[in-house]
Amino acid sequence: MATILSTKEDHYQGLIVDPLSLPTESNTPTNTTIEETFGRMLDASLTRWKESSYRGIWLKLQRQDHARLIPVACERGFEFHHAEQEYLMMTKWLPEDVPSTLPPNASHQVGWGVYLQVYNIVSFSKPNSFIVSFYFITTSLSRSDLL
After folding, report:
1. Exposure check for the chain: N or C terminus, fewer CB within 10 A?
2. Percent of the chain, pLDDT > 90?
3. Going by CATH, does the domain composed of 7-93 fall within 3.40.630.30?
């Protein structure tokens, strides 16, 4: 029987796969490839997770150690969520009868800003008069799904 991947539960009946539980070249048996090892582990894990009624699965693949695992995850229905320079985050929604509620990745930002300068002029007729100024800078970002 294949090893189940280690995970941590999130707050939404989902799981985050522990990257340290993924096979690498150094911890894969010599008589099998890293892709075969990961495929067996992922198949066994997906079966267990579905039986346990988990919903969303988050799989973080490090570029240096796990790039060869990307096609294996894609073959099992994982989709690209977002990528950074050092890793790729993939997701899979398990329930077949419920639409996915996994959040989309930020594809762009909409923001606004206001700069307001207020002058308060104190009388110049007095020898110790001066100008007081106040600066206000406020900004905000909007969620793309609300636009």
Report:
1. N
2. 59
3. yes
How far, in Å, are 109, 112, 113, 136, 145 from residue 140 at the CA level? 10, 6, 7, 14, 15
**64-80 tens-digit pLDDT:** 889 999 999 999 999 99
H-helix or E-strand spanning residue 102: none
Q: Which residue in 29, 4, 8 sits closest to 17, CA to CA?
A: 8
Provide the Cα torsion 83, 78, 17, 33; round to 10°: -100
Rounded Cα distance between 86 and 83, Å, is: 8
Contact in structure between 104 and 120 (CB atoms under 8 Å): no
The boundaries of every CATH 3.40.630.30 domain in the chain are 7-93
* The token pair that represents 98 in the structure block: 């419920």
- Contact criterion met (CB below 8 Å) for 70 and 38: no
Phi then psi for residue 54, to 5 deg, are -75, 160
Query: Would you give the DSSP letter of residue 86?
Result: S
Q: How far apart are CA 60 and CA 7, in angstroms?
A: 11
Both tokens of 99, joined, read 């639409």
